[in-house]
């Protein structure tokens, strides 16, 4: 299991998200509280962000080191400011390599995505069935070996093959495809996902069996006014809202929130 973080709001320095909260993502990398499997998130990390003043493809920074061990990250996170950020600290599934291409977030044009979860026995279960659902271009775009990147590829495929679909609809359809394949191949999976196009956040909390990994959201807190945060674990004491089991949440550009059941 990994730990996720998403932010949408007024531009702020990244260290306010990554380092300063008492239970920050850095702390969660070595002392998580609510993981359903694993002990630490020491198999790399990554963050992605969008330019604060103009629309362009997002930027990413990744490392295979534990997040607490990267000497560049404190300096970068003080320098970079953004109004839309995704970040991840990784606990690799057994058998998956600790490699830069396997670090999140994943990117396709304007889309960034992070995933906390698993596909059971991925290489022997849904690896080929997922690839068979992909267009050749999306198939060729996969660089790593993780179930997370293949889930992201399914999302990209939905966006590419149904260009008028919203990001919310594409993630909803992606979860639907996974559920269909999971039932067909008698394979369990979990898919806590956050995706963005720089203007909105869309997040899912879903698993084919209990327990469903935790996910929370918070809007307009005193420490982060005019913003919405989504996180695997609360970053600090506040009135965090737990996602409903098997639900999807959209944070629009005006920070209004919509939720639907999956």
Give the C-alpha Rg: 17 Å
| Assigned CATH superfamily | Aminohydrolase, N-terminal nucleophile (Ntn) domain
CATH topology: Glutamine Phosphoribosylpyrophosphate, subunit 1, domain 1
Work out the helix count.
7
Total domain modules: 1
Strand content range: 25-35%
Can you characterise this structure?
There is one protein chain. This protein has helices spanning 15-18, 25-30, 73-79, 127-132, 136-141, 147-161, 167-184, and strands at residues 3-13, 45-49, 59-63, 81-89, 106-108, 111-119, 189-196, 201-205, 216-221, 224-231, 241-242, 247-251, 257-261. With 262 residues, the chain is α+β, with helices and mostly antiparallel strands. It has a single domain (3-261), classed as Aminohydrolase, N-terminal nucleophile (Ntn) domain (Glutamine Phosphoribosylpyrophosphate, subunit 1, domain 1, 4-Layer Sandwich). The strands form 2 sheets. It has a 7-stranded antiparallel sheet with strand order 3-2-4-1-10-9-11. Strands 5-6-7-8-12-13 form a 6-stranded antiparallel sheet, covered by helices on one side. A hairpin with a 5-residue loop joins strand 12 (247-251) and strand 13 (257-261). It is globular.
Provide a brief overview of the structure:
The chain has 262 residues and is an alpha+beta fold.
How would you summarize the topology of this molecule?
Layout: E1 3-13, H1 15-18, H2 25-30, E2 45-49, E3 59-63, H3 73-79, E4 81-89, E5 106-108, E6 111-119, H4 127-132, H5 136-141, H6 147-161, H7 167-184, E7 189-196, E8 201-205, E9 216-221, E10 224-231, E11 241-242, E12 247-251, E13 257-261
Antiparallel strand pairs: 1-4, 1-10, 2-3, 2-4, 5-6, 6-7, 7-8, 8-12, 9-10, 9-11, 12-13
Helix pairs in contact: 6-7
